[in-house]
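Recap from last week: sequence in, structure out.
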Amino acid sequence: MKSNNQFIKSVELVSKNILDSIPDKPNISLHNYLLDLINESDGKENSLYLNNVNPFIKEVWVEIIKNNKKVREFIPNKLNITPSVLYAYKNGRKAISIQMLYKLISLSNKNVNKIWDNIFQSEFTFSTHSKHQKTKLPKSITPRLSYIIGWLCGDGSFQQRHNYVVKISEKSTNQLLILKSLFKDLFGVETPIFNRYMGGYALQIGSKPIYRFLTQVMNIKVGQIPHIVEMMDKTNKKYFLIGIFDSEGCVYLNRFRLTISQADNIFLEKIKEFFKEFNINCRGPTFHKTELGEWYTIRIDGKQQILEFYNQFGSCHIDKLQKLYNLVKKID
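Predicted structure tokens:
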């Protein structure tokens, strides 16, 4: 019988293998979405800020000096800031809000769009006014991001009442550790795992930049298919579907059946269409009603279709992958 340490090591090895199995290519480049991260209601205290963009501010400074010798008065007056704040932006001692940076480069006679795109392609981080946590955001869609998008569309949670929180609830802490590693890879943040008061666990990401990227750039809503999925290549779409299955799927070991559940049957109809692109046929949606509520399911039935699903998709869920493997062994 395995010791506890041996068991932990085996779980860690499986988790690492699952993480390594999710590629970071192919990439689908995203448009410059910086302005999409802000709201009209954003003020000084609740804007998103950029760090490490001071080389571009210096470039604009030099350009304005050529045309206006009173630059030390001109820029602060135009932007309604003090000269000391301007110098702090220029020297990189102070992060600058997205809105302020765009206004600043707009004072230059250079091609504003070109500078703005160069900023987007540069190495910078996001923060808020408190600078509590610096964050990076993806500039392209990859299978790793597609998997997270699928998971959040299937069973994520977005809360904006007091803080900007993205939450994933799960019974398996080992699976949450895998998701935690993915968030670290994609966004450069450490995400805590909490024991939920109703049972189970939750991975909770309190970050306005990440929240706005997922909701305003990726346009993710739980139970809906984002338009971005339509433009995905086959590999990214595959990992999006794996994310859906891992969050809302079920493996039945007593029969040759897989199901995916959701409250919205239109959502499941679209998932069926995506699976059909891979020659996986789903039945349903089937309506269910119990004392727990109402929902729909689609299902994949039969030995051949189970094998097809396992070979093409499988799972990145540490528990569901094992169940799938056990089900396939029955077929063999």
